[in-house]
Amino acid sequence: MHLRRVDLNQTPLPDPITSACVRVSKAVTTFLAKDRDDANLAGMSVAEPLLIPHADADGSLCGYLRVCERDFALRIVPACPPTPARLDGCHALRSTLTGHEAALQQWLRSCTSPDEFLVELRDLLERLLRAQPAPAPLTTSSFYEQLMTEIDGVGWSALRNISPSFDRLELELLDEAQRAHVLHLSLPSDYPASPPRAEAALPAPFELQWAAEQQRFSVRGAMLQFEAALGRHQLLWDMLDDLDAHTWVLEPQHPTRDCVVRRLAIGQHCSLQLGHNRAWRGVPVLGVPQLTALAS
């Protein structure tokens, strides 16, 4: 068993807890020496601390403490002046108790028996573990099989990036003018039973829409919706590209496809700001120009 030390206060434990550790060690040794059948041993509750004397014969106890269905390896070493008492534990125990060393120091000083200390330790661990977010459910093999099949269908050339856990995709599509656009998809763990979430740099908010009775969702379906959304902004992007190519654009210096405002230099210390207006009869138009004097 490899245990590492948790930094604790250097103040030695009072004699009562030291002697109590020794008494418990002797009691556990006597118990283990008795002839027990397997049925009785199998009936022991693993929910209780399983502590036995350590081989060092220094009165320390080691074993496991189960809290919230998790097992933590630990060792309580009593004080042996001038060496103070300490609590050793596994990595999971150390990481869970990080930031609570002061409370452990206080309990090790004030508790008069290992049982009393374990009660305090268990209570602290229960509160910390219940405050932690629930772990994400494990992804099934069918998730990966389904995803690989869908990427085969849309073409691997469209896949720009994928996260190590395969739950986030970046897909690249070209519009009618061969401009590249990226669709970000986040896949839930129960995909395709639940729909993916989408993000994209578009002039208007983009949200995937699915039929109410739809029970299975697909990457291809998301890409088709994204392709349709790109088609609705072609004229606007054509106008903005024309401004970028043939005028002096002051701001923004590096516009993205969701940026529809341009501030243009027109000479005589003046600038012209253009922004996107609502579509008129389905045709997107640029808004009323704003003339602004440039600072000298």
General description of the model:
The chain is α+β, with helices and mostly antiparallel strands. It folds into 3 domains: 4-131; 141-231, Roll (Ubiquitin Conjugating Enzyme); 234-293, RWD domain-like (Ubiquitin Conjugating Enzyme), CATH 3.10.110.20. It is 33% helix and 22% strand. The chain has helices at residues 15-33, 38-42, 91-97, 101-110, 114-131, 141-154, 219-231, 234-246, and strands at 4-5, 50-53, 61-67, 70-77, 86-89, 159-162, 168-174, 180-186, 197-200, 249-251, 262-267, 270-274, 290-293. The strands form 3 sheets. It has a 5-stranded antiparallel β-sheet. A 4-stranded antiparallel β-sheet has the order 6-7-8-9, covered by helices on one side. A 4-stranded antiparallel β-sheet has the order 10-11-12-13, covered by helices on one side. The longest helix is centred in the first third of the chain and has 19 residues, at 15-33. The chain starts with a strand and ends with a strand. Mean pLDDT is 79; it is low at 1-15 and 31-47.
Question: What topology emerges from the helices and strands here?
Answer:
Layout: E1 4-5, H1 15-33, H2 38-42, E2 50-53, E3 61-67, E4 70-77, E5 86-89, H3 91-97, H4 101-110, H5 114-131, H6 141-154, E6 159-162, E7 168-174, E8 180-186, E9 197-200, H7 219-231, H8 234-246, E10 249-251, E11 262-267, E12 270-274, E13 290-293
Antiparallel strand pairs: 1-5, 2-3, 3-4, 4-5, 6-7, 7-8, 8-9, 10-11, 11-12, 12-13
What order do the strands of the largest sheet run in, or round the barrel if closed?
1-5-4-3-2
| Cα-to-Cα separation, first versus last residue | 75 Å
Number of helices, where a helix is a run of at least 4 consecutive DSSP H or I residues: 8
Give the class from helix and strand content and strand pairing. Answer: alpha+beta
The sequence of SSEs as H and E is EHHEEEEHHHHEEEEHHEEEE
Low-confidence stretches: 1-15, 31-47
